[in-house]
Amino acid sequence: MKPKLFLTVTLLIAAACAPLRADDTAQRTAAVEDLLTTMHANEMMTNILARQREAMSKMASSFMPKDTPPEAAKKFQEEFPKMMDTVYKQLTWESLKPDMVQIYSDVFTLDEIKGLSDFYKTPLGQALLKKTPEISARSMQMMQKRMPAIMAEVQKSVKEMVEKSQEHAKPAASPAASAK
C-alpha cells in the first residue's frame, strides 16, 4: 500500500471513530456524575473540608515560632480565620466537581463506573457510604495513638545514625599521639 493511501485510510478511520470517542466521553461523564450523586460526594466533601478546617484552626497556634511576640500571636489568631476563608472559598464542591469527574473518568472504565453506581444504590452500598466517615475517623484516632511510640523509635534510630556518622567522621588517632 502506498504511503499516501495508507495515511488517507488511517485518517478516515480515525475520523469515523471520533464520534464514538465523544459519545464514550459523554456517557462516562454522565455515569460519573450519577456515581458522585449516589455517593453523596457533595456532602462528603463538605464534611471533609469542615473537619479539615476545624483541625487547621486548632493547629493554628502551632504554625507560629515559639518566640513570637504576644501581640503578633494575637493578630495571627484574629487573621487566621480570614486566611482559611480565602483557602476554602476555592475548595467548594462546585469548583472541585469537574476535576473529580475527570479523575473518576480517567481511573475507571465506563462499566466500572456503572457497577460502582449500581452497588452504591443498594442498601449495602448506602450503609458503606454512611459508615465510611466513622471508619475513617476511628482509623485516624487509632493511628494517632500509635504515633508517639513510632516517633520515639524513629528518633532513637536517627540518634543512633547521627552518632555513627560522627564516629566515622572523627580522624583516626595516630600511633604517636596515642603513645603519649
Describe the structure.
With 180 residues, this protein is mainly alpha-helical. The chain has a domain at 20-130. Helix content is 85%, strand content 0%. It starts with a helix and ends with a helix. The mean pLDDT is 83.
Please outline the helices and strands.
Elements: H1 3-38, H2 41-59, H3 70-89, H4 93-107, H5 110-120, H6 123-169, H7 175-179
Features:
180 residues, mainly alpha, 85% helix, 0% strand, extended
Radius of gyration: 29 Å
Roughly how many Å apart are the termini?
92 Å
User: How many β-strand stretches?
Assistant: 0
What does the largest sheet look like? none
Gross morphology is extended
- Give me the strand/helix succession: HHHHHHH
**Regions with pLDDT < 50 over 5+ consecutive residues?**
none
The total count of helices amounts to 7
Structural class: mainly alpha
**Per DSSP, what share of the residues sits in E-state strands of 2 or more residues?**
under 5%
Estimated helix fraction: over 70%
Give the overall pLDDT as a whole number: 83
